[in-house]
Design goal:
Radius of gyration of chain B: 22 Å
Distance between the termini of chain C: 45 Å
Oligomer: heterotrimer
Order of helices and strands of chain C: HEHEHEHEH
Distance between the termini of chain B: 61 Å
Largest interface: A-C, 48 and 47 residues
Strand order of the largest sheet of chain C: 2-1-3-4
CATH architecture of chain C: 3-Layer(aba) Sandwich
Number of strands of chain B: 12
Number of helices of chain C: 5
Structural class of chain B: alpha+beta
Helix content of chain B: 25-40%
Largest sheet of chain B: 8 strands, mixed
Order of helices and strands of chain B: EHEEEEEHHEEEHEHHHHEEHHH
Number of domains of chain C: 1
Shape of chain C: globular
Strand content of chain B: 15-25%
Number of strands of chain C: 4
Chains: A alpha/beta (316), B alpha+beta (344), C alpha/beta (179)
CATH class of chain C: Alpha Beta
Shape of chain B: globular
Number of domains of chain B: 2
Radius of gyration of chain C: 18 Å
Largest sheet of chain C: 4 strands, parallel
Strand content of chain C: 5-15%
Chain lengths: 316, 344, 179
C-alpha cells in the first residue's frame, strides 16, 4: 500500500493535478507518525502507512487553499464528507487517497498490558489479527482487539466510502463492533449526582490547552465561543465548572458532525475521558434522528434537516 | 561524607518532613502525573522513568491564581490583597531539567518587576531532586546545559544506587533539611563510586542530541524567511500543549470577575500559540500560524538568550512527547537554515 | 436579553442568590426563553386574561425559539438558575418557517445530553405555546415550577464547601476526592 501511495502522490504532484498532499510520515519518536503536508514531489518518498497513523488529517483541510490530495482512512473520509456537507470543502478540490484501515494501535494500551513504557519496547508489529511486541529480546503476542484504540474497535467504516483512488483491499466493519461503552455504561449506572460529580473530578485537571478542539475536524470556527468576550460565556480560568461547560457546549456544537474518531481523547495531555462525551452524543443523535455523521455526502447536515414529526415526547 | 537513604525508608522521611513542610510529590492519583500534596503513603513515583506531565512550575505559577479581591463602595474601590500564606513547601522528586527550568523562569520574575506571587512561593520552597536513571527518547537535557543527575538547581539531589539513594547536599537549606531527618546512613566510598557510575550511565542513555551552536544568530537571520516558517508550522494545530506544559514557559493572562461591584482579579495560564494571544483592538500581529510558531521557537532559542544569556529550554521532552502532531523542536532547530551573510 | 447579557459580561464566579437570606424559604428561579411571535404573546394573553401562574419565572424574549443556543441554557444554569424553559410556536407555525424545527432538534439533543451528564431532566424543559394559548402557558409555568420545587435548588456548579476550588495547585489542590 505504501509503495502505491508514494507513486500516486508523486504523480499527482508532478502532473500538477494537485497543489498539496497531506499524509503521514515517520515521527521523531518510536511507534509514532506525524502529518506530512507538502507541495514538494520529492517529499512523497517519506509517506508511510503503518499501524500508528492516528491523526485525523481532515482537520487540516479547512485551512488549506488550492487542490489537496489527502490520505484518508475510514474516519478521515467520514470527516471529509461531513465537511463537504457543511460546505467547508469542495469535493472537486480534493483527491482522496483511500486507505482501508485495520485499526490503529493504542500505545497506552500496550504499555499497560506489557507493564513497560514505550521507550523500553524494541518493536511492535502487526500481522493480521496478531500484534507482536518485542521487549528485552522476548516477544509477546496480543490479539489486535486488545491493543487497538477503543474508537477503532467501534469503527463502522474502515474503508472510505468517498475516494478517488483506493490503495488497498476493501475492509468491512468487524462483525462484533465493540462499541466501547464500558465507561459510558458504568456512568449510566450511577445516580445523576454521582455522574455529575465524576465529571467534576475529570474536568478539574483540564488546563484549557484546547487541543481537543483544535484536532477536531468539526471545530473550524474562526472564533470559538470560549474566545468570545461580549458576551463572556466562559471565563478563561481553568475552573472545573467552566471546563465542563466548555466540553458540553463543544459537543453540542459538533453534534451530527462528530464522527467519533477519538482524536480528542488521544491528544488530551491530562487523560480526560473525552470519548465518553463524544460517543454518547454520537449515540444520542443516532437514536433520536437516525443520523450517522459523515456517511452520505449528499445528505443534509443534522441540524439543517428536520422531519415533520420527531422528538415530540420531549416537548410539552 | 554523604548520606544515603534506603528507598523503603523514603515514606518515613517524607512523613518527618511533613511536620514542617507541605510536602508535594509526583502522583497519578488525579488522573495525570503531576506534583500534588503527598498523600502520606504513596511512593510509587520512585519507579517512574518519566518526569511528570504537568511541570513543577505549577507549584509556583499555578494554572489559576487569585491576585486580589476588590469591592466598590461610595468612596471608590477597596482592594484586599491576598493573605500571605507563608506556607513552606517541599517539592520532592524534582527532575534536573525541571529544576533548571525553574532557575531560568526565575530570571524573568526577578527582573525589573519582582513578581510577588511567584517569588513568595518560590522562596518558601525547598527542592529535593531525583536523578533520572532511564532517560526517555524525548529527553535531550545533555544538549541543553544540564544532565539527568545535575544537582545545580536543587537543595538536595538523590542519586539512584540500587536499593539506596545517595543524597548530595547542595545548599544550606538542604543541609538543614537533612539535619532534621532520621533513618539516614553514612555512604561508603563504594556507594560514592556507584553514584558516579550511575550518573555516567544515565548521561550516556540520553540519545537525542541537539547542536545549538550559533542558533541565536541563525534564527535572527532567518526571521523573515516566511517560506521556512510556513513549512515548519504546517502541521501545528495551535493548541497550547507545548507552551502550557513547558517548564520554562510563563505567559499568563489577567482577568477580572465581578458581580454587583464585588469581585476578584485572577491570573491564569496563557499561550502564545493561541490565535488570539496577540489580538488587540485594531490588529493581531500574529494572526497567522507561522508567526506564532516562529515566536515560540525564537523566544526560547533567540530572545531569551539575548536577554538572559541562556536558552530557555532544558530538554525535558514534554513538548515532543505530548504534541498531538509530534511537532519536534529538535528537528526544527536542526533545520533552521544557515544563511550566508550578504546573500539574499 | 440585555440583562442576561450583562450578567454574562460581568462574570460568573459569585452566587447571584447571595441576596437571599438563609431563613426565607427557597423559591426556584426559572428562566424562560419565549419566542416573540407565539409564546411571548401567549404569556401576555395569560396576563390579560388574569390567569394565575407562579412568579418564579423570568422571561427573556427571543425572536424565535430557534435563536436559543445551548450556550444560553448552560449559562443560565451556571449563573444559578434552577431551571430553563424554552417555548416556541407549534411545529409548522413558525413565523420564520423552520426556526422551531431547528429548536426542536437542538433542544432534544441538549436535553438528552444533559441528562446523561447528570443534570436533573426537570431543569431543562420545552413547550410549544401559541399566541392564543394563555391558559396553556400558565399551566406550563405552574407545572415546571412544581417540578423544580421537587427537584431542589441548583447546586450543579457550586464550589465545594470543603476545599476551595480556586486555591492554587501548589497548596495541594483537592483535585481528586481521595479518601
Amino acid at each position: 500500500m505504501e509503495q502505491k501511495l508514494r507513486q500516486e502522490a508523486k504523480a499527482l504532484l508532478e502532473q500538477k493535478k494537485i497543489d498539496w498532499i497531506i499524509g503521514f510520515e515517520a515521527g521523531s519518536l518510536k511507534f509514532t507518525t506525524t502529518p506530512l503536508i507538502t507541495k514538494d514531489a520529492a517529499d512523497t518518498e517519506r509517506l508511510v502507512i503503518n499501524p500508528f497513523i492516528t491523526n485525523n488529517l481532515a482537520s487540516f483541510l479547512t485551512e488549506m487553499k488550492g487542490r489537496v490530495a489527502i490520505v484518508a482512512k475510514g474516519c478521515e473520509s467520514r470527516s471529509i464528507v461531513s465537511l463537504i456537507q457543511d460546505n467547508k470543502v469542495a469535493r472537486e478540490d480534493l483527491v482522496i487517497l483511500g486507505v482501508p484501515c485495520p485499526g490503529i494501535i493504542d500505545l497506552a494500551k500496550i504499555e499497560r498490558l506489557v507493564g513497560k513504557e514505550r521507550d523500553e519496547l524494541d518493536d511492535i508489529s502487526r500481522d493480521g489479527d496478531k500484534v507482536s511486541v518485542k521487549v528485552n529480546g522476548k516477544k509477546k503476542d496480543f490479539t489486535a482487539s486488545d491493543v487497538l484504540f477503543d474508537h477503532c474497535l467501534a469503527c463502522e467504516l474502515p474503508t472510505p466510502q468517498e475516494y478517488d483512488i483506493l490503495l488497498g483491499e476493501e475492509r468491512k466493519p468487524s462483525p462484533e463492533l465493540k462499541v466501547s461503552g464500558q465507561n459510558i455504561a458504568a456512568l449510566k449506572e450511577l445516580t445523576s449526582t454521582e455522574r455529575w460529580a465524576s465529571w467534576e473530578k475529570e474536568l478539574s485537571r483540564c488546563i484549557r490547552c484546547y487541543a481537543c478542539r483544535n484536532v477536531c475536524p468539526a471545530c473550524f470556527c474562526q472564533r470559538c465561543f470560549v474566545e468570545e468576550t461580549e458576551p463572556q460565556w466562559v471565563m478563561p480560568m481553568p475552573r472545573w465548572q467552566d471546563n465542563l461547560i466548555f466540553q458540553i457546549i463543544r459537543n453540542i456544537h459538533v453534534a451530527g458532525r462528530c464522527t467519533d474518531c477519538g482524536e480528542c481523547e488521544r491528544v488530551c495531555p491530562v487523560n480526560i475521558p473525552l470519548r465518553s462525551l463524544t460517543r454518547e452524543m454520537y449515540d444520542i443523535v443516532d437514536e433520536l434522528f437516525k443520523f450517522k455523521s459523515g456517511m452520505d455526502k449528499d445528505a443534509l447536515p443534522l441540524m439543517v434537516h428536520y422531519e415533520q414529526e420527531e422528538a415530540e415526547d420531549l416537548f410539552r | 561524607m554523604s548520606k544515603k537513604v534506603n528507598k523503603k525508608d523514603i515514606a518515613q522521611l517524607l512523613k518527618e518532613w511533613s511536620q514542617q513542610f507541605n510536602v508535594l510529590a509526583p502522583s497519578r492519583a488525579s488522573g495525570v502525573a503531576e506534583m500534588t500534596e503527598w498523600d502520606g503513603k504513596d511512593t510509587s513515583f520512585l519507579e517512574w522513568y518519566r518526569n511528570t506531565v504537568v511541570p513543577p512550575k505549577a507549584s509556583f505559577l499555578p494554572p489559576m491564581e487569585e491576585m486580589f479581591r476588590f469591592r466598590k463602595d461610595e468612596e471608590g474601590y477597596r482592594i484586599e490583597p491576598p493573605s500571605k500564606n507563608g506556607q513552606k513547601q517541599l517539592l520532592f522528586g524534582v527532575r534536573p531539567c525541571d529544576a533548571r527550568a525553574m532557575a531560568i523562569v526565575d530570571m524573568t520574575f526577578e527582573d525589573a518587576y519582582k513578581d510577588p506571587y511567584y517569588l513568595e512561593k518560590r522562596r518558601n520552597a525547598v527542592l529535593v531532586g531525583m536523578g533520572c536513571t532511564n532517560p526517555c527518547e524525548s529527553c535531550f537535557c545533555t544538549s541543553m546545559g544540564t544532565t539527568p543527575t545535575d544537582s545545580t538547581n536543587v537543595d538536595l539531589m538523590l542519586i539512584d544506587i540500587g536499593d539506596y539513594f545517595l543524597i548530595e547536599e547542595v545548599t544550606a537549606k538542604g543541609k538543614e533539611l537533612l539535619a532534621k531527618a532520621s533513618g539516614l546512613k553514612e555512604a561508603t566510598k563504594s556507594d560514592e563510586a556507584e553514584a558516579e557510575k550511575s550518573k555516567e550511565t544515565s548521561y550516556n542513555k540520553v540519545t537525542r542530541k541537539l547542536d545549538t551552536t550559533g542558533i541565536k544568530d541563525r534564527l535572527l537571520e532567518s526571521f523573515d524567511d516566511e517560506e521556512f516558517w510556513t513549512k515548519t508550522a504546517a502541521k501545528c494545530i495551535s493548541c497550547g500543549i507545548c507552551t502550557l506544559l513547558c517548564p520554562t514557559c510563563y505567559c499568563f493572562d489577567i482577568n477580572d470577575e465581578m458581580v454587583k461591584g464585588e469581585g476578584a482579579r485572577f491570573r491564569n495560564w496563557d499561550s502564545c500559540g493561541f490565535p488570539l494571544y496577540t489580538k488587540m483592538p485594531m490588529e493581531n500581529p500574529r494572526s497567522e500560524k507561522w508567526r506564532r510558531v516562529r515566536q515560540k521557537v525564537c523566544h526560547k532559542y533567540e530572545f531569551y538568550p539575548m536577554a538572559f544569556d541562556v536558552i530557555a529550554c532544558t530538554g525535558c521532552g514534554r513538548c515532543i512527547r505530548l504534541c498531538p502532531v509530534n511537532w519536534d523542536i529538535t528537528q526544527v532547530i536542526e533545520s533552521v537554515p544557515q544563511k550566508v551573510k550578504g546573500a539574499k | 436579553m440585555k440583562l442576561f447579557l450583562r450578567l454574562c459580561y460581568n462574570g460568573t464566579s459569585f452566587d447571584p442568590r447571595s441576596e437571599m437570606s438563609p431563613e426565607s424559604e427557597w423559591e426556584p428561579k426559572l428562566l424562560g426563553f419565549l419566542c416573540r411571535w407565539c409564546s411571548y404573546a401567549g404569556a401576555d394573553l395569560a396576563g390579560t386574561s388574569r390567569k394565575k401562574y407562579p412568579a418564579n419565572i423570568r422571561i427573556i424574549k427571543v425572536p424565535c425559539s430557534g435563536r436559543v443556543d445551548s450556550l444560553f441554557i448552560l449559562k443560565a444554569l451556571r449563573l444559578g438558575f434552577d431551571g430553563v424553559l424554552v417555548s416556541g410556536c407549534h411545529p409548522g407555525d413558525c413565523h420564520y418557517q423552520t426556526g422551531n424545527y431547528r429548536a426542536r432538534r437542538r433542544i432534544a439533543i441538549i436535553k438528552k445530553f444533559l441528562e446523561y451528564l447528570g443534570v436533573e431532566p426537570q431543569r431543562l424543559q420545552a413547550s410549544w405555546v401559541s399566541a392564543s394559548e394563555g391558559g396553556k402557558f400558565a399551566e406550563v409555568v405552574t407545572d415546571v415550577t412544581q417540578d423544580l420545587k421537587e427537584v431542589g435548588p441548583n447546586q450543579l456548579f457550586e464550589r465545594k464547601k470543603n476545599g476551595a476550588k480556586t486555591k492554587a495547585r501548589s497548596e495541594g489542590a483537592a483535585r481528586a476526592k481521595e479518601d
